[in-house]
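Private note to self, pasted from the team thread so I don't lose it. Backbone tokens:
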């Protein structure tokens, strides 16, 4: 073999040794990152399977790309510490025992040694460790791929409803505002109180104190609405009677006028005021001004009161818990508030009449309690029997007068009865001194 062929042979041999060395270094660096990368890939697979099941079709490509990235990073780190060809040539010379013959031939100071076939390599590849590490990484990803995972269910948004009392009050206010049955300022005041209760965190709406405040607001609002209905009915009855009462006595007219003025004052000062137009009309009413009102004006006022009362009943017709006064003047026989009666009014005054027969309330009837005495159920201080008898007097006893505070008998001498008055601690002290 000529010198050119020998030079090519040794050059290929040096490069092959260099490739083996660099491949081993790259594989060693990549295996160091393989297990952490496998753990990360397994975690990604589990999360995707749990949250985004539809994205699993892209997972093989994602894992393949991640594997290529780790390989590229390991190769880049290996290239930074690559071994020069001169060092590889020296390594080959040392392994073959050529004593720097290749380095000298490369420098042109000596001829190239003859080629050796087969050429033993100074670096031997052992695949056991890389294969074991690759198998562990594959098992981690495969376990994450096949292990059962429950699907992610997005949490439902919880809506905390308002307390039932506040919902009921809100429904009342909305209905009376829609029918224009109360003044705007009265409705706004109740809404303001509701907002103050709802400004708390929603999680605190159902605490004991918050529920009590809501129930109290509902009770107060219901009471105001019921009072408004009763006052409207009373004012409407009085004004209607005044408008229709041509031949009423002056005393009765003054009484009805006073009732109308009292009802109008209560309507203006109540927690729930009527509609704004009616409130403005009622502010001008008093017993003195009612005397100068014509029947047409009284009838107009009665119609306004009746209209407001009907609007209130219509707004709250779906609230059976409210006890509204259903006593409009055009409903014969339906009056609930007693006043001046008439063919279209109702029962009129409270019936008071005298009767000849005495009302028997059964107060003179005597009843006998017949019960058996259970001696087994007696307790201390229970009365077993009460007997009426005369006192028994001992005739042989001395009944002569005695001086107050005198002794009935002389003392017996050294009696120790006085010790009965000592407490136990005092007795112990006396025993120590008087034995």
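Design output:
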């Amino acid at each position: 073999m000529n010198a050119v062929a020998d030079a090519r042979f040794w050059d290929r041999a040096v490069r092959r040794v260099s490739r083996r060395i660099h491949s081993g270094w790259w594989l060693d660096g990549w295996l160091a990152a393989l297990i952490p990368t496998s753990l990360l890939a397994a975690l990604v697979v589990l999360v995707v399977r749990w949250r985004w099941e539809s994205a699993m079709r892209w997972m093989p490509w994602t894992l393949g790309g991640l594997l290529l990235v780790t390989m590229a990073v390991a190769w880049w780190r290996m290239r930074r510490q690559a071994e020069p060809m001169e060092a590889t040539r020296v390594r080959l010379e040392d392994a073959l025992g050529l004593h720097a013959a290749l380095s000298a031939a490369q420098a042109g100071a000596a001829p190239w040694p003859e080629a050796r076939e087969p050429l033993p390599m100074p670096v031997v590849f052992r695949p056991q460790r890389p294969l074991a590490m690759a198998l562990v990484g594959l098992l981690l990803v495969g376990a994450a791929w096949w292990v059962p995972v429950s699907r992610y269910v997005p949490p439902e948004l919880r809506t905390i409803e308002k307390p039932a009392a506040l919902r009921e009050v809100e429904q009342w206010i909305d209905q009376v505002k829609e029918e224009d049955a109360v003044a705007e300022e009265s409705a706004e005041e109740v809404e303001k109180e509701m907002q103050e209760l709802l400004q708390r965190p929603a999680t605190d709406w159902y605490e004991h104190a918050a529920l009590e405040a809501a129930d109290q607001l509902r009770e107060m609002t219901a009471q105001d609405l019921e009072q408004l209905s009763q006052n409207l009915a009373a004012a409407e009855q009085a004004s209607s009677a005044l408008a229709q009462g041509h031949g009423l006595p002056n005393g009765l007219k003054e009484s009805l006028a006073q009732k109308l003025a009292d009802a109008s004052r209560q309507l203006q000062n109540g927690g729930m005021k009527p509609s704004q137009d009616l409130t403005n009309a009622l502010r001008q009413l008093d017993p003195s001004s009612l005397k100068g009102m014509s029947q047409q004006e009284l009838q107009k006022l009665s119609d306004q009161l009746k209209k407001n009362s009907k609007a209130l009943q219509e707004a709250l017709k779906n609230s059976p818990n409210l006890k509204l006064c259903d006593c409009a003047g055009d409903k014969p026989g339906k009056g609930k508030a007693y006043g001046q009666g008439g063919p279209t009014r109702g029962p009129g005054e409270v019936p008071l009449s005298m009767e000849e027969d005495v009302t028997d309330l059964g107060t003179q009837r005597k009843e006998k309690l017949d019960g058996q005495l259970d001696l087994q159920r007696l307790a201390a201080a229970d009365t077993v029997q009460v007997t009426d008898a005369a006192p028994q007097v001992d005739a042989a006893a001395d009944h002569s007068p005695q001086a107050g505070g005198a002794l009935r008998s002389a003392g017996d001498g050294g009696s120790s009865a006085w010790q009965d008055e000592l407490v136990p601690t005092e007795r112990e002290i006396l025993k120590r001194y008087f034995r």
